[in-house]
Amino acid sequence: MNLFGVMQVSGSAMLAERQRAEVVTSNLANAETTRTPEGGPYQRQHVVFAPASQASFASQLAAFGAASSMHDARSQGVKVQAIVADNAPPVRKYDPSHPDADAQGFVNMPAINPVEEMADLMGAARAYELNASAVQATRGMIQNSLDLLKS
């Protein structure tokens, strides 16, 4: 894999982690949403990552090992394959004064754990930062290579 391939992989990971952070912040923002246009409380969303290339691991390894195929091996990366709703049932909370309370005074609240969401958000932020560092390091190596060629 060449240096530009490294930047492509890190760039795709940064985009995927940014989307993950957006989904997590949406989950946090809707933690108290009891009524959606679809009906019922907000459902927590999950991001599903997938390889950017659909080639098998064996073919990727073979392509990486072959000098003539290194250009193809650099097209690796990650992408967001889907954003899916969590199937967890809503949490029933007793609040008879709430406008969405049922006859017994219970409200169906989203099954969102703020601690879990914050941990996911921190994970996305750290992964983004690590990939940004990889891009900066790769940029430095490319610049050093160009400086050597000028000499």
Notes on the protein architecture:
This protein is of the alpha+beta class. It has one domain (3-31, 45-85, 112-150). 51% of the residues lie in helices and 15% in strands. A two-stranded antiparallel sheet has the order 1-2. Strands 3-4 form a two-stranded antiparallel sheet. It is elongated, with a radius of gyration of 22 Å. Residues 67-74 have low confidence and may be disordered.
In short:
By secondary structure, the chain is α+β, with helices and mostly antiparallel strands. It has one domain.
Features:
151 residues; two-stranded antiparallel sheet; 4 helices; 15% strand
Helical residues, percent: 40-55%
SSE order: HEHHEEEH
Q: What structural category do the secondary elements indicate?
A: alpha+beta
Strand order of the largest sheet: 1-2
Q: Estimate nothing, just give the exact number of structural domains.
A: 1
Mean pLDDT: 88
First-residue to last-residue Cα separation = 25 Å
Major sheet: 2 strands, antiparallel
Chain-wise SSE layout:
Elements: H1 3-29, E1 45-51, H2 57-65, H3 70-73, E2 78-85, E3 91-94, E4 106-109, H4 114-150
Antiparallel strand pairs: 1-2, 3-4
Helix pairs in contact: 1-4
